[in-house]
Amino acid sequence: MGADRYLFLAMFKEDWRLQKAFVGSIGSAFFPVMIFLFSLVLSITSPMLLKNVSMDRILLILHLMGFLYGMGVGALAQVGEQVMNRRLGQVNMLLGLPALHPLIFRRVMALFFYKDAVFYIFYSILPLVGGIAVAAPFTDISLSSVGVLGITVFLAFMIGMSLSFLISAVATRSRPAAGLLAFSIVGLALLVNPMEVLEAGQLLWPLGFWTDRSLIMLGGSVIVALGLSVAAILTMKERVTVPEERHHSVLLRTEDKFAFTGDRKVLVAKEFLELRRSGTLGPVLTGFLGPLLAIYIMVWIFQSALGFDLTFNVLFFGGMVGFLGVMTYSWLTLVEPNEFLNVQPVGMHQVIGAKLVLYFIFTYSVSIVYLVIIAVMQEETALLPVAVLTALATTTYVAAITGYLTGLKTNTMLFDARVLSRFTGALIPPLIIIMIASFLTEKAPTAALAIVVLISLVLILVARHLLSRMGERWRTEPFGM
User: Fold this and answer.
1) Are residues 313 and 187 in the same domain?
2) Are 329 and 410 within 8 A, CB to CB?
3) What does each C-alpha distance from 123 to 15, 108, 115, 126, 355 come to in angstroms?
4) Of 63, 39, 15, whose CA–CA distance to 160 is shortest?
5) pTM metric for this prediction
6) 91 phi, psi to nearest 5 deg
7) For 157, phi and psi rounded to 5 degrees?
8) Positive or negative CA dihedral for 31, 36, 37, 38?
9) Cβ atoms 173, 236 nearer than 8 A
10) Confidence of residue 309 (pLDDT cuts 50, 70, 90)
11) Domain ranges, residue 135
C-alpha cells in the first residue's frame, strides 16, 4: 500500500510538471477559473435566462453534461496503450513503468484512473459547484442542495468516465466487441429520447436521485461507477512488448495522388500515410463530424430546453461547422512526435502547411455535403451558395488562426491563458455576427445575406494574411513539446 500511495502521489506531480511544461502555472489554473466564473455568472443570471425552463430540465442538462464530460476524458485504456507502445514526445510517463520494472500494468492503470478521478474533482467539478455555491445567496438555491448537486454531478461524471474506460479497454482486445458495447449504449439512449420508453433517471441513476430522493440511487451510482472501472481494469491486457506492424512502401504512389499540392506533395503524402497507418484517420474525420452532433445538441437546448423561438437555417449551420472544426486540426497535430525533424531539412512552418492541406481536404468536402443535406431537408436551397461560402470562409479562418497561434502544439497551447484569450477574441466576434445575421434572414433577407457575405470575404482576407505569415511565425521554432 505504501508503494501504491507513493506512485499515486507521483502521478499527480507528473501531471503538474507536464502542465507547467506545456502552458505554465498560470495557464494550468486558467481552465478551472474559467469554469468557476462561467458557473457563477450563469447561476446569478439563471432567474432571467432560465425562467421558462423547469428544474427537471436544468438537472437533466447538468447531469448529462457531467456524463458526457466523463465519457470524453475516460478513454484511458487507449492512452495507456499509446504510452506503453510509443513515447509521448520526449517524455516517458510513469504509466510506462511496467515495461521496465516488475509492476503489474493493471495495477498501475488502476492508480492512474483513480488519480484522474481525483484530479477532475478539483479541476472541474469543484469549480462548477463552487460557482453555484457563491451565487446561491442571490438565487433561490440552498447551499445543501448545491452540495447534493455536486455529489450527483460527480457521480454522473464518474459513470461516464468508467463506461468510456471500459469501452476503450474492451477495444484493446476486440474492436467489434467495443463497437457492439457502444452501439448498445446508443440504443439505450434512444429508448429515452426520442422513443420515450424509459425516463432519463432510470438510466442515469444520479439524476434519478432527484426524482424520489432515494439513497438507493446514490448507493447504486457508486456501485455502478466502481463496477465499471473494476471491469475495465480487469479487461486490460498486460503489454510487455511493442506490437509490430509492416507496411508496403507506397510513399511515391501517394505523392502522385497529392501532386496538385505542388512542392508540399512529399510532406502531405507523409502526413497522410502517418494518419492511415497510426489509425488516426478515423478520429480526424469523426473529430470534424463531432461538431455536427454538437450543433444538434445546441439547437435542441435552445429550442426545446430553453424554450427560445429561433429559426436555425442553413446559414447558421454553415457558420457553426466552420468554427467548430478546430478539433480536426488538433487531431492532425497529435499523430506522432516530430523531434526527429530537427535534424532534417524541413521547418515547422512547412509541416504545418502540409497538415493544413489535409485539413482543408477533409473539412471542405464534409462541410459541403453536410450543408447540401441540411438545405434539402429544410427546403432552403436558395440559401445554399451563401451558406457554402460562409462554411469555407470560417473553416479557412479557424485553421489559419489555430495554426498561427499554436503551430503543432494545439493540444497544449490552447490551455495557455494568453493563447486561449487571443484565440477566443479572434473567433467569437465573427461567430456572433454570422449567428445574428442568420436569425434575421426572415425579417431582412437582403441585409442579412449582405452581412454574411461581407464577413465571409473579410475572414478569407484575414486568413490569407495569416497563412502568408506562417513561415515568419514558425520558421525558426524547433520541433518538440
Assistant:
1) no
2) yes
3) 12, 22, 12, 7, 32
4) 63
5) 0.65
6) -110, 135
7) -60, -45
8) positive
9) no
10) low
11) 1-244
